[in-house]
Amino acid sequence: MHHKMEEQHDLAKWLAGEMTKSELEAFEKSADFETYNKIKELSSQLEVPDFDTQEMYQNIIARKKKKKVIRLQDLWYMKIAAILVLVFGITFLVRPYVPTTEYASVGEKNTFLLPDDSEIALNSDSKINYKKWNWENERSLKLEGEAFFKVAKGEKFTVNTNLGEVTVVGTQFNIKARNKNFEVECYEGKVKVVFNKKTVFLTKGQNIVVQNNTKIEAIPLTDLQPAWLGNEIKFNNNSLADVIEELERQYNITIENTKDSSESFTGTLPLKNLDTALQIISKTFHLKYEKATNERIILTEE
Questions:
Q1: Domain match, 91 and 104 both
Q2: How far is CA 229 from the centre of its chain?
Q3: Based on the domain organization, do 216 and 113 belong to the same domain?
Q4: 141 vs 2, 108, 167, 278, CA distance in Å?
Q5: What would you report as the CA-atom Rg of the chain, rounded to the nearest whole angstrom?
Q6: Mean local confidence (pLDDT), 110-128
Q7: Residue 269's CB: how many other CB atoms inside 10 A?
Q8: Residue limits of the FecR protein domain (predicted)?
Q9: Contact (Cβ atoms closer than 8 angstroms) between residue 119 and residue 113
Q10: Three-class SS of residue 240?
Q11: For position 283, which CATH number holds?
């Protein structure tokens, strides 16, 4: 108990900046210093009202009409209580305002609803950030990866990616933004696509594929939903590296390949049959594949 009181007294002195140089050096070497420092850093980053503990305590003393004057520096427990209330109280206040993040890990999918009841399906290895608490005022999302959106009728928002942005009103569309590949497919309504200082409007059944900031030929839309929701992966003139990366993402596997290829692949691969997908890729890029394990595939020259 005595040791605990000493630790708390040290913490109070440190918070108040009253430690001598030798005391500070010893305190910084203590096992709990890193934890205390993180709490202090967190509290310093938060905007809080001025909090004068000296004045607060003197007001308490005055109200109680105590004759004996007690130095606040001696009341280490009050300082600790004050800083804990300050830090953890503000943490509880701030928590609801932290942006919401939705993930779909490798080999998984994730479907969720926005506050306006718009539905979003996230493809494997993708995430979306948005401010749930401020949705009515800030209708924007940040997408990394690929997602399908079914926007509630009459609702509007903007999806930002590192390759371009899409603005929508009550529509259904798919966005893929990976590496330098940016693809948007419109399945219902109308979407506005902005990329590389260009603006394109897509209506139902239209799509756009941008690679290295340049629009390229795309496979026309024939279905009512994205290929990945129908257990296929669609490629538009993609490199062998892109194809391997997508297979790894969807099947949660590792593919080793040493061959560079100038050829590209346009078409679809199955999402539920790895052997068939590997056979198609092998023929297209003139490779052989070998399963070292169920999770590790080796590609070699034919």
A1: no
A2: 22
A3: yes
A4: 53, 21, 10, 35
A5: 29
A6: 97
A7: 23
A8: 105-192
A9: yes
A10: helix
A11: 3.55.50.30
Please report which helix (H) or strand (E) contains residue 33, including its range: helix 33-45
Is 266 a residue whose pLDDT tops 80?
yes
Asked if 240 and 265 count as a contact pair (C-beta separation under 8 A), the reply is yes
112 and 75 part of one domain: no
In this structure, the answer to whether residues 195 and 237 fall within a common structural domain is no
Query: Number of structural domains, the chain?
Result: 3
Q: In this model, does residue 177 exceed pLDDT 70? A: yes
Band (pLDDT 50/70/90 cuts) for residue 49 is very low
Residues 214, 123 within the same domain:
yes
Domain that holds residue 163: 99-230
The per-residue pLDDT for 241 is 94
- Residue after which a domain boundary falls, among 96, 121, 140: 96
pLDDT band at 209 (very low <50, low <70, confident <90, very high): very high
Does one domain contain both 61 and 106?
no
Note every long-range contact of 101-104, with CB atoms under 8 Å and residues 24 or more positions apart, other chains counting.
Answer: 101/127, 101/128, 101/129, 102/127, 102/128, 103/127, 104/145
User: Which residue's entry shows tokens 């490779």?
Assistant: 287
Please state the pTM of the whole predicted model.
Answer: 0.69
**Single residue among 69, 96, 123 that ends a domain in this structure:** 96
